[in-house]
Amino acid sequence: MSLVARRASHLLFIAALSACVARQAPAPAATARLRIIGTNDFHGALEPRRIGGAQRGGAAALAATIERAESECVAPACEWILVDAGDEFQGTLASNLAFGRPISEIFNHLGYAAAALGNHEFDWGQDTLRARMHDERYGVLAANVRYADGRDAPWIRDDTLITRGAFRIGVIGLLTRSTTTSAKASLIEGLRFDDPAPIVDSLAADLRRRGANTVVVIAHIGGFCDQAEASRCRGEIFDMVGALKQPVDAVIAGHTHVLLNTVVSGVPIVQAMSSGVAIDVVDIPFDRTSAPTRHEVRPVYTDSVAPDAWVAQRVATAQAAVADKASAVIATSAQELRQTDDSPLGDLIADAMRAAGHADFGVMNHGGVRAPLHAGTVRYSDVFEISPFGNVLYKISANGADMRRYFEKIVGGRNPNAWVSGARIVYDSTRSAGSRITSLTLADGRSFDDAATYSVVINDFMLTGGSGLGFPGQPIASEPINVTDLDALIAYLKALPQPVTVKSEARIGVRH
Question: What's the whole-model pTM score?
Answer without folding.
Answer: 0.91
